[in-house]
Amino acid sequence: MDILSLTAVELAKAIREGKTTSVEATQAVLDKIAASEDTYHCYVTVEREKALQQAAGVQKKIEAGELTGPLAGVPFAIKDNMCTEGTLTTCSSKILENFVPTFSAEAVLNLEKAGAVILGKTNMDEFAMGSTTETSYYGVTKNPRNPEHVPGGSSGGSAAAVAAEECFAALGSDTGGSIRQPASYCGVVGMKPTYGTVSRYGLIAYGSSLDQIGPLTKDVTDCATVLEAITSHDPKDSTSMKRENTDFTSALVADVKGMKIGIPRDYFGEGLDPEVRDAVLAAAEVLKAQGAEVEEFDLSLVDYAIPTYYTIAAAEASSNLERFDGVKYGYRAQDAEDLHTMYKRSRSQGFGPEVKRRIMLGSFVLSSGYYDAYYLKALRVKALIKKAFDEAFAKYDVILGPVAPTTAPKLGSSLADPIKMYLGDIYTISINLAGLPGISVPCGTDSQGLPIGMQLIGDCFKEKTLIRAAYTYEQSVK
Ligand SMILES: NC(=O)C[C@H](N)C(=O)O
């Protein structure tokens, strides 16, 4: 049995049936990490001994019949912006180079309750700001489908680790596309759930009104299973919702008969790579052939999504990142003669250029005199974007489009022009502004062999509809 090629759900089944053990699987994936990390660099931290110990504990519980769930014994990777008790958590920033949390994020605890083994922490854009994982202080991650290209971002390490078989599944976070876009670039499945579904407790905040944790997996079955495991109502996160019917795996049914799918014309205009367009439209045809009703419609306001997102996300980031001052966490500049200089030097030396750009932009749009013109206006446009989606979901069950305008760019080609990089988020960010769920599903490759992702967007709380559509597509093209 080639353990590494199994999905998370297949591996857990093999462990339950005694065909392998959690320890054997953990050892196999640690060997794979040792062999391929030099090439891909998916992780900031790998916890070899801890993972093997955890696997041994989990295996005992499985054998004693105390852990019976569909993920028991499965080794996972966690994005390095989720706190993990006793394990370095850097957000891929120098400012957190020595931060070892005393508690774990609720989503991580939920996974551990389900019997997951935590392998380590994955590389990301610094504080999740970026679309390529190149803004990490700890070096770039390479795309396992073609190491000359970026894995996407900001959850690039998590997506690459799944694609490189350096874990069986991973957690990422998505503020403006950070799960879906790297999933699309690396040819894996990635889902951003409805805002409030997965607790943000222990997720180091970037844009708090937009951030959401979600799964990156090898297939749709794993995605639904991981989502089910990490979903919970958590009083420690004031935006966490009490949701009913979160048995997402019950939606793994290959049937879209009568499902109404809308294709926004605005998502197929200027800037979209023709190969991406063709692959996504071909995927829509597959769903049509399975009985879905597919039609085009106009989803206005798409053009306003980028400025709105980058105003709100930067504003929230500038406030959230105030806590990194050299006193309470992480890096502190040495030899400062007074407190103010110590703050200034710690932050100047601790943050990278993209993070500084956002802090400055965010402070600007929140400053008196500019608050109404920028921040408040962005909040108003955000409400209009939500309204446009509400109108669309009065007609359609699912909105289908591309995840990103292109396939993965070459390493080193994106950072020189930040505005161009921001424009690449055009199809993903309005979903965060509206709080909606979205899933990225692989739908082919371009002429260079780089993966293409189709994005399915649902109304709030309609993850099951997305899972059903994604699963139907996946089964049809198998
Ligand atoms: N965090 C994200 O979702 C990625 C987005 N490109 C950003 O830089 O904000």
TrEMBL record:
GO terms for molecular function: ATP binding; glutaminyl-tRNA synthase (glutamine-hydrolyzing) activity. Keywords: ATP-binding, Ligase, Nucleotide-binding, Protein biosynthesis. This is Glutamyl-tRNA(Gln) amidotransferase subunit A. One of its GO terms (cellular component) is glutamyl-tRNA(Gln) amidotransferase complex. InterPro entries: Amidase, Amidase_CS, Amidase_dom, AS_sf, GatA. The active site is at residues 79, 154, 178. Heterotrimer of A, B and C subunits. Transmembrane segments: none annotated. Its EC number is 6.3.5.7. PROSITE patterns: AMIDASES. PANTHER family: GLUTAMYL-TRNA(GLN) AMIDOTRANSFERASE SUBUNIT A, TRANSAMIDASE. Allows the formation of correctly charged Gln-tRNA(Gln) through the transamidation of misacylated Glu-tRNA(Gln) in organisms which lack glutaminyl-tRNA synthetase. The reaction takes place in the presence of glutamine and ATP through an activated gamma-phospho-Glu-tRNA(Gln). GO terms for biological process: translation. It comes from the Bacteria. Pfam families: Amidase. It catalyses: L-glutamyl-tRNA(Gln) + L-glutamine + ATP + H2O = L-glutaminyl-tRNA(Gln) + L-glutamate + ADP + phosphate + H(+). Residues 24-466 form the Amidase domain. It is an enzyme of class 6 (ligase). NCBIfam families: gatA. Belongs to the amidase family. GatA subfamily. HAMAP family: GatA. SUPFAM superfamilies: Amidase signature (AS) enzymes. The lineage of its organism: Bacteria, Bacillati, Bacillota, Clostridia, Lachnospirales.
